[in-house]
Fold this sequence. Notes:
Elements: H1 2-45, H2 49-60, H3 100-112
Amino acid sequence: MAVLAVSYASSLRAYLEQGDHLAGLRVDIAASRVNIVALEREKARWDDPVYVRTQARLRFGWVLPGEVGFQVLQTDGTALEGGASLSDPRPPLEGDEPVWWQTAWDSVEAAGHPERLVERAPAEQIAPPRRTGG
């Protein structure tokens, strides 16, 4: 009886291990199918000439006839990478202008209380917008 129990236990263990391995393979197959669909979609995009032209412009810096290409350089003369961004060298000036949400909220409050509005004379001349920073 003990010999039968030991042989069945080892067979059961092998069966369970194979079941786990089979489940893992099924997950891998499902992931591969999703990857295949994504790759087929990508392959179909390359049949579109607009997509090909866009990729050539992004990857290789190609320009169309009549356009002017340029390369942004860092201070040491090396080219700025495509994913990099330039920062504004001027520090932001706080307090010059109200923040956008405050202006929007003021208009909401003014719409609810028209008696608070201040009557203003029409402008004689329109001034250009003020430049912030230097």
